[in-house]
Automatic annotation (TrEMBL):
Species the sequence originates in: Mariniblastus fucicola
One Gene Ontology molecular-function label: hydrolase activity
Enzyme Commission designation: 3.1.-.-
Protein name as catalogued: NanoRNase/pAp phosphatase
PANTHER family named among the record's database cross-references: BIFUNCTIONAL OLIGORIBONUCLEASE AND PAP PHOSPHATASE NRNA
Coiled-coil residues: none
Taxonomic classification: Bacteria, Pseudomonadati, Planctomycetota, Planctomycetia, Pirellulales
Amino acid sequence: MQVDWKRFSEVIEASNNIILTSHIRPDCDALGSCLGMAGLLESLGKKVRIVCGQEVPESLKFIDPDDRIKCIGKDIVAEEFADADLHIILDTSAWIQLGDMADVIRNSSYKKIIFDHHEGEDDIDAELFKNTTAEAVGRMIVDAAEYLKVEMTPAIAQPVLAALATDTGWFRFGSVNPGTFRAAAKLLEAGAQPAKLYGQLYERETVGRVRLRGTVLARIETELDGRLAHTYIKPDDYEKTGAHPTDTEDLINLALEIEGTVFAVIMVGQVSGGYKMSFRSRCDVAANEVAKAFGGGGHRAAAGAFIESDSFEEVQNQVLTQVREMLAAGIA
């Protein structure tokens, strides 16, 4: 699926008061794309507000130095943007990922569009602008800037680089192509600073996150002759290690560093209840197909899902049984 940029331009041109929303448990693609899109739209004279279902994680607050991203029910209520004429949902097409913004979107009467790169979508009453081959929504923001003829500024380029770089594993993932680097070059030409971004992301670790990483590493187990690696985090691990729940971001990639591993799973207990699963694949079994078995989704190489159960043993058995069966069928 590709974006109809002519139609997208028409929708933007017809709107003046726009709300942007992305998914809960936000990553850099969600946050950076919202900030980048806000900059593009404001360059066109639009009024823009960013309202999401959760606060920006402490570890990612650097991406929003002006505190533009508001949390529904905490920083703003729905009545304050009831006068909007367009709502853009970025980097998700699933109700469950919208958190407390889901009811706001269901009960609103203004036009809604989805701007996303994930395969599949729920029955959200929204016009779709999706590119399922895009490496990141950040890449789509770069394309939007070109089509809308908006000159990117450093304030736009920096968060969009965060979106593009992190969703491609700093340009390591299989989704990367020559266009990825051309897009990155445009962001650097607009003033993005990759060294600063890398330092903000990876060179200010807390003791808690380091300890949590150690816990995750100690729990890694391999199966199927080393092709499957899995690990987990329980809700009480955050208190034990002094880590924050957002410190789990990207820890699954540690399992893929093991030679011979082609599929990795991490089961992450949530303080609010339930378990979030992340899947990574570099084999014929698509991560998003595994995630669909649990009502989740994502991409072929990276996907996620959520199970509303507080029993780790139940979740572990359910998830690993499904993964084992699909790997056995998919890897002859």
